[in-house]
Write a structure and sequence with these properties.
By secondary structure, the chain is an alpha+beta fold. The protein has 2 domains: 105 residues, Ferredoxin Thioredoxin Reductase, CATH 3.90.460.10; 33 residues, Rubrerythrin, domain 2. The chain is built from 6 helices and 5 strands. The radius of gyration is 18 Å and the shape is globular.
Length: 169
């Protein structure tokens, strides 16, 4: 089934409602953001943030899949997420997006494009365990588990801060 702007809007509205947010009321701006999400979902297979460049590599873009990892801290601090798709009541009533500083680390925004030198062949995967740098993190408050390099800034289930996550060893 192909993605439509209406489906993207329904998902965003449902997520906003579930978290007590609103979608930016300026309709032309909102339409542009929703179309960007639709385009990125068709292009990459996931709805990456329409305001940030994506690589098309799921593991590298995981933190910017909408709603991104930075949305909740941005809305809490500034009243809107980075692209202003999600806003709080005050921004919704005012109707104007606000500038939000970028929280995404520079190394994720600008991965090193230089080709890596070819390495000597290594023993087969059957004899050598593969490491990705990812690990399992669990939320000590609600038990949510995620597999990635760093824990999320905020638990998507209970809204606990990053400090509430611990690695599973």
């Amino acid at each position: 089934m192909s993605t439509t702007v209406d489906r993207v809007r329904q998902r965003a509205e449902a997520d906003a409602k579930m978290h007590g947010y609103y979608l930016i009321p300026e309709q032309k701006f909102l339409q542009d953001l929703l179309e960007g999400l639709k385009t990125n979902e068709e292009r990459y297979g996931y709805p990456s943030c329409p305001c940030r460049p994506a690589t098309g590599i799921y593991e590298q873009d995981r933190d910017i899949i909408c709603p991104c990892d930075y949305r909740d801290p941005d809305v809490a601090e500034y009243g809107a997420c980075y692209c202003s798709l999600y806003v709080n009541k005050a921004i919704y009533d005012e109707g104007k997006p606000v500038p939000i500083p970028e929280r995404r680390p520079a190394e994720k925004m600008f991965p090193d494009p230089t080709p890596k030198p070819k390495e000597e062949p290594k023993p087969s995967a059957a004899t050598t365990p593969q490491t990705t740098g990812n690990k399992l993190w669990y939320c000590k408050q609600c038990g949510y588990v995620v597999f990635r390099e760093e824990p999320p800034f905020m638990c998507p289930i209970c809204k606990a801060k990053k400090e509430f996550f611990a690695p599973i060893v």
